[in-house]
Amino acid sequence: MNIHEYQAKALLKSFGAPVAEGVPIFSADEAAEAASKLPGPLYVVKSQIHAGGRGKGKFKELPADAAGGVRLARSIDEVVQNAGDMLGNTLVTKQTGEHGKQVNRLYIEDGADIDRELYLSILVDRTVGRPAFVVSTEGGMDIEAVAEETPEKILTLPIDPDAGVTDADAAKLCDALALSGDARSDGMTLFPILYKAFMDKDMSLLEVNPLIVMTNGRLRVLDAKVSFDGNALFRHDDIVALRDTTEEDEKEIEASKFDLAYVALDGNIGCMVNGAGLAMATMDIIKLYGAEPANFLDVGGGASKEKVTAAFKIITADPAVEGILVNIFGGIMRCDTIAEGVVAAVKEVGLQVPLVVRLEGTNVEKGKKIINESGLNVIAADDLDDAAQKIVKAVKGA
Ligand code: ADP
Ligand code: MG
Q1: What proportion of the chain, given as a percentage, has pLDDT over 90?
Q2: Which superfamily is assigned to 21-110 in CATH?
Q3: Comparing C-alpha atoms, which of 318, 317, 374 is closest to residue 341?
Q4: Is 119 a catalytic residue?
Q5: Could you report the per-residue pLDDT of 8-43, keeping only the tens digit for each?
Q6: Where's the ATP-grasp domain (predicted)?
Q7: 250-395 fold
Q8: Among the four residues 121, 162, 173, 203, which has the most C-beta atoms within 10 Å?
């Protein structure tokens, strides 16, 4: 689960990290009052969407040479003007995809006098099985280019979870970021604070880009992007309360209500499969035959007819879906339950696209009978290979 920058900053501040003063707003009328609470004379108006690259982003509704999704303002009037320009419009950044994201919230922040922009993140480094800091002196808006072109400018420092961030670790990070004087003592305090926030809140990513050295020599967290481990959310009600579902894929929200493992993808073949392994294999084989899956969907082991119906409805509601492949190997999940769910869902929402069904395993005969007697226009398949070829052919022929 992701949260907005202003929420991440409030969270990091509660752990003691230095962040700027700021006020989130939801409508342009709130802009003047929000700005008047800040010291000025420099303000920053920041689009709050769950994607980075906002500074260099472009608004669909504004001329191509208009400023991006993070703007400096030198007076309260300019804050108000920029807020009106940005709210309600669609921001396209490197991370949003071409559809962009509508900006429904802004963060009005105190402007900082920046000397240097650094990069810092904490993530789970799977190669060493530990949390790790990733830092670079080359922070700011082009860290992806640094990673590609000059990877030697990036330091990855795994942390021993039993010891936490030791003074020696913090010193290494300070060295890598070339911090001296006040900035160095700020860093020695800040790095353990960020690590504590990461661990206590079960984050999967904490990215501060940029972490800045200000002209007064002090450190400040200027941007913050935080993701949480979904499997640990049950123990963080305070984090769940920060969820902004308008930022999430509607189909994924619907799926989460039914406890379905569903991930929306860009292709046109909707998949309903049981078991994550079989779901992955199904996606692979669709690709092998030259098409793209529209989703990953694992209906799980003991799914009920209602759950299967919900899953089928989510797939058919996706306008990108031009064909559906149901691929079930009945073990704990019984083929007749799947068949009943599919038939019930089709009766409710209709079927506008070709449907290939491959059933195998427990109660397969019952399942096939239910489908055959339903009068549905189903293309039957014998095995995974056959099923994939048939759905790809049906979609490409259409
Ligand atoms: P994004 O990474 O989505 O582009 P950032 O929050 O990193 O958004 O902002 C982009 C750039 O805008 C920063 O690299 C920094 O140069 C500038 N900036 C952001 N916030 C402030 C601020 N409070 N004061 C001064 N400059 C800022
Ligand atoms: Mg940034």
Answers
A1: 76
A2: ATP-grasp fold, A domain (3.30.1490.20)
A3: 374
A4: yes
A5: 999 999 999 999 999 999 999 999 999 999 998 999
A6: 9-241
A7: Rossmann fold (3.40.50)
A8: 203
